[in-house]
Amino acid sequence: MDFKLSAEQQDVQKLAIQIFADQTDNEHLRQFDNNSRYDTKLWSDLGETGILGISIDPVQGGMGFGFETLCLVIEEAGRSMAPAPLIPVLVSAALPLQKFGTEQQQSILGRVATGDCLISTAFAEPLNDDPLTPSTTAERVAGGWQLSGLKHCVPYGAQAEKILVSAQSSEGLVALWLSPDNEGIELTDQQSTSGEAQSHMTLTNVLVNDADIMAIGSDAETAMTYALQRTQAALCAFSVGMTDKMVRLTAGYTAEREQFDVKIATFQAVAHRAADAYIDVECLRLATSEAVSLLDQEKPADDSVKIAKIWCGDVTHRTSQASQHLHGGIGVDRDYPLFRYSLWSKQVELTLGGSAQLLSELGESIAETFLNR
Amino acid sequence: MDITLTPEQQALQLEIREYMKSIMSSAMIEEMKDPEYYEGGGPEYRKGLRKMGQDGWIALSWPKEYGGREATAIEQYIFTEEVMRSGFPYPFLTTEAIGPILAEYGSDEIRETVVKGILQGEVVIAIGYSEPGAGTDLAALKTKAEKNDNGWLINGQKIWTSLANFSDYIWLAARTDSDAVKKHKGLSMFLVPKDNPGFSHTPIWTLGVRTNATYFEDLQLDDKYQIGEVNKGWRLITGQLNRERLSLVNHGPIQILYEDVATWAAETQGKDGQPIISKPWVQTNLAKVKTGLEVLRVMNWKQAWAIEENRLGMEQASVAKVYGTEYFVEVYRLLMEVLGQDATIGGDSPGALLQGRLEHRYRVGSILTFGGGCNEVQRDIISAAGLWMPRAR
Fold first, then answer.
1. What is the DSSP string of B243-311?
2. What is the pLDDT, as a whole number, of residue A90?
3. Which ipTM did the prediction report?
4. What residues of B are in contact with residue A248 (Cβ under 8 Å)?
5. Cβ of A366 and B290 within 8 Å?
């Protein structure tokens, strides 16, 4: 048992803190609030410093560090609200590609590491965010597969060169890489609550080459689960930074704000609500550390990831509301940075499983365990 | 980061789990059904504790010079977890908090008799801090110790002195300087043998367990029983409270309750002929318990690790205290809901489930949020030390 970060992890963390600190002041962030939350200058800086290649194989020009190290960068992005699509590109798409993709499919990773291209994953369909049970269908045809269906809330779908998609076929699940400019694909922008660029993607008899198929059957289920669990855990890591910063903004503000001739932080009712948020964030941090660490070591983590994401859903919601409440009017003013954290809190809370749904799934898993003892 | 036990730590965990089965004999379990002996004190308890001393377990984390094994903080936590999981009312505060203070500050004679006795499982010590007028505001205590030619003359009353009905000594905080400007200054620590004629006690039957009121009337105490520097007892008191906070929220006892309720729900059929655990609301309750339990476990492990690395932040023990105790209270409710009304049947009655443990535990659990440092005070500590918020006054 060792909770210490390695020296190289600490270096990566320091580097991320520094890059984000330089490019995430409130004035700067404002430019991207209504513009995809994507700062191309920041993204290319992240590429130049090697951050984008942290968990990409050295063969492809990356550094080859593990998922846990990548999550340290993601936590800092959450803390600073950096407008950079780290989770969709580096976690949801690049990690499964590196693990399950063919050599030809993986050749794009070098350009991902330098920041020259974005890739993404389409997990969700309307009323269904489980990539293992899609309604989208795939059928074998001459020279490849034909795909039909509907994906939505695809992060950076309009900017991505390749999008990982799962579909149901007579041979089981199929996981494949789509190029959005393929014939039969129609992308429409969706307005997400956080401002993150998302796309509604209709697929009408889209032809996919055999070369773009990544996995079929149980292999495809493994690959999509791999992508899903790491994305859920990364959302938790993002939330650790995000909620920690919200509590600290709140502590700082209430320590200055005066009403009834005293700093409002000296009211026990205020201090205790902040203390409860502090405890919540610590719980989220611990649950996340465990899930991330297990995934990093490729150990069984099914329950741990669900538990972390349940904490994530609860803590993002509670911390956001407590912070807004304790700030009073200034908190909702878009000239003050808190509103951005609140929007992302709701986005993350409901992405890939809210707490009620995951509690139910975890409960089923517990029942199965004890019934089979 | 690696948040799993090493093979050596796992082996230790299993070794203690197996060992504790021999201590929690059926005779011990039977003895604990008597409310008088629930927290120890009966002949079987004494026998078990002595055996743990002889087998070297009490000295696990102690230095070699005391016959100890110098276990790390993590190993000691594993021991605590397994002992608490077994249900044996082990006197942790005697062995882990007061024992080390006596070893550090006591005379050679105290070390030879009391400390050795603790490590052999012969000596149990009760804590005499709280008074009718000094609870959360502990420094307001009034019990007085005056220096005289024969040592110290002590007068006063303590309350909630748990274990005092069977312990061998009382670890007593008393005021030795009534003129001290700050009230936490001017306090000193004493070890009072139970057979001193100035000592007496009466039982207090609480919602959960038996505790005691204790009385010190013209109690004459030899100098050797005054421990640590005179008028500087506050440091010894607060050092011990932090340890107490951590041992309060150990995840071992909740883990076994959760497993036992889930096992019961899987093995028991409802009136629809299906296992109780197949009901969605039962699954949700168990999932809520497990979600909180995982964090409690990792939180405790991380604090044990931080103690070992000497980097435990001041607010961390308070975070564990508030989170753990409020979670415990919630867990009892979630698990009792699974058992339904049957959960309220006492252990000795027909129809009781899981030996009535939940019926008993929720009653005992009602002290958790205010005992060992009231949770409101812990939240004050968290907002000040964790978030640098200014304090009232």
1. HHHHHHT-SHHHHHHHHHHHHHHHH-B-TTSSBGGGSHHHHHHHHHHHHHHHHHHHHHHHHHHHHHTT-
2. 98
3. 0.96
4. 387
5. yes
